[in-house]
Specification:
about 40% helix, two-stranded antiparallel ribbon, alpha+beta, single chain, 6 helices
């Protein structure tokens, strides 16, 4: 059965829990650990959910926030409903497919 995997990026939550509320407070910590990112890159990292993340940046964030990657990224998985195969029989609701009659009235009359 196919599964759908999702994840949640919790950087902003963990920063707030440690008293950091702006990217300006995070950037010096990154720089002192050898990670040089522009302020727009750090802003996207904090405000959005990254699709790709280098392991050095992940390790540095974990060191700054004193957490593990599992704290930063929470994952969940759920089974997807199986789709009906082509040609497989399924009940047909004829009432939903039947057109409704049009009622014609003389012009000007409603």
């Amino acid at each position: 059965m196919p599964r759908q995997i999702s994840y949640r990026w919790r950087l902003r939550e963990l920063m707030a829990a440690r008293g950091m509320f702006t990217i300006a407070e995070l950037m010096p910590h990154l720089t002192e650990r050898g990670i040089t990112l522009s302020s727009s890159q750090v802003h996207r990292l904090v405000s959005g959910t990254p699709e790709r993340l280098s392991l050095p940046v992940l390790a540095t964030l974990c060191d700054i926030l004193d957490c593990t990657p599992a704290d930063l990224i929470t994952t969940s998985a759920q089974n997807l409903l199986a789709r009906r195969a082509a040609g497989e029989e399924a009940p047909i609701n004829l009432a939903a497919r039947r057109p409704t009659r049009v009622r014609l009235t003389p012009e000007g009359e409603r």
